[in-house]
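Hey all, quick one. A colleague (J.T.) asked me to put the zinc ion job into the tracker so the inputs and the structure tokens live in one place instead of scattered across chat threads. No bug as far as I know, just bookkeeping. Sequence used:
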Amino acid sequence: MKAVRIHQFGGPEVLRYEDVADPRPRKDQVLVRVKAVAMNHLDLWVRNGLPGVSLPHILGSDVAGEVVEVGEYVTSVKAGQRVLVAPMHFCNHCTQCVAGRQNMCREFTVLGNAIDGGNCELMAIAAVNIIPLPDHLDFDQAASVPLVFLTAFHMLTGRASVRPGNTVLVLAANSGVGIAAIQVAKLFRAVVISTAGTDEKMAKARELGADYVIDHYRQNISEEVKNITHREGVDIVVEHVGPATWEHSLRSLKPSGTLVTCGATTGPQVGIDLRFVFSRQLSILGSYMGTMGELNQVLKHVFSGRLKPVVDQVFPLADARSAHEYMEQSEMFGKIVMNP
Ligand SMILES: [Zn+2]
């Protein structure tokens, strides 16, 4: 088969479209023909170099495709079925896994991070990861869903316990997590304030359901949040940007508010004024992916049309380099998808 692999860490130039041996499914695995694979910021981090990644390596977390064949023990799906792949690896037998907390498993990793991912034509993957896909969702849309919608769902429901009437600040409406978090927060009847960098992106954020949108280049985020909330602040901040927004995120919280973070696209180090955190009784929560239970819950809303994936642009897998360069420019609104 063809695959995009990296043999060394670095810029988009390290991506190589090349021949790789076809994978063979184990008895508990399914062989999937990849029809679409969506990009995430994780692809850039892994490509630039993360510990735990062995080379050569295949990137790509979010895969939609068709079942080619199934292993002897697999009864849940058949050849020819359209499916989505849960973008995670877990042992499926430790106490965390059997309790349904797969993202706490010692073996837990994201597909395409510490294990090979979906930037290829064929994937052998555990049957437990396979989720049948309804006909009305095309492969590009489907591949745009799992990682970001699961992440946003776990952040807002599993970690920050969003409730009707809460006010939620979602940073970077144009990002995958932003697009998902705006919609998930609205699903739970929250008032949503989001941020975007151009008039066009601000309009798209409103179309997704954001009640208020702040121009994060021309306006001061925390001052605008104070104006919108009549000096009160928000209950929850969905943070995934890092140093570029951190100060504003903390300052936007109301007393006893919750900041939940799942990423650090502008860098890993931030400062915290402890006096501000304890005197205002703030909660700062980490969030990493989500559970299989949460993935199935959020997919119900996607499959029924209440939550909508947004595809920005589709590239051929053979031109993965252009897709990476495009993502690094951060001009997109929605997901970048590649087709093998
Ligand atoms: Zn486990």
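Adding what we noticed when we looked at it: The chain has two domains: 2-145+309-339, 149-286. DSSP finds eleven helices and 18 strands in the chain.
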